[in-house]
Design a protein that fits this description.
By secondary structure, this protein is mostly helical. Helix content is 63%, strand content 0%. The chain has a domain at 88-126. The chain has six helices and no strands. The model is unreliable at 1-7 (pLDDT under 50).
């Protein structure tokens, strides 16, 4: 049975040809398999000094960031007592001038003749 086209590529390899091909490729294949079985030379069980310094620096940096974030959160929580919800708004408004209180009440009519206490009451009501 003959092929219409060139069928040399499609013919099965003879036993001798396969043996010759295997003997030719065997050293290269064994070399690759040996490399795959062994560890690379720079991959050791323990870290090198350079790797240890890198990991130590990263760990210390993380600890410093956590400490700074915790301190910032505590300072924010403690500042509530000074400028937060426990300060009486009426006393803060009494420290302002009549002009500042009138500027807070822009749009309200009839405030030109009011006293400071009345202006404070209007600001708190609005």
């Amino acid at each position: 049975m003959e092929c219409e086209y060139d069928c040399d590529i499609l013919r099965p390899l003879t036993r001798q040809y396969r043996f010759a091909l295997w003997n030719h490729l065997k050293p290269a294949i064994m070399k690759v398999l040996k490399r795959l079985r062994t560890k690379p030379p720079n991959q050791h069980k323990y870290f090198t000094i350079k790797e240890m310094n890198y990991h130590t620096d990263r760990t210390i940096m993380l600890c410093v960031i956590v400490v700074l974030a915790t301190i910032d959160a505590l300072i924010t929580l403690l500042s509530i007592f000074k400028k937060g919800i426990f300060i009486d708004q009426r006393t803060q408004l009494m420290d302002k001038t009549n002009r500042q209180l009138k500027e807070m009440l822009i749009g309200v009519k009839g405030i030109s003749s009011l006293k400071k206490t009345e202006l404070v009451e209007l600001v708190l009501a609005s």
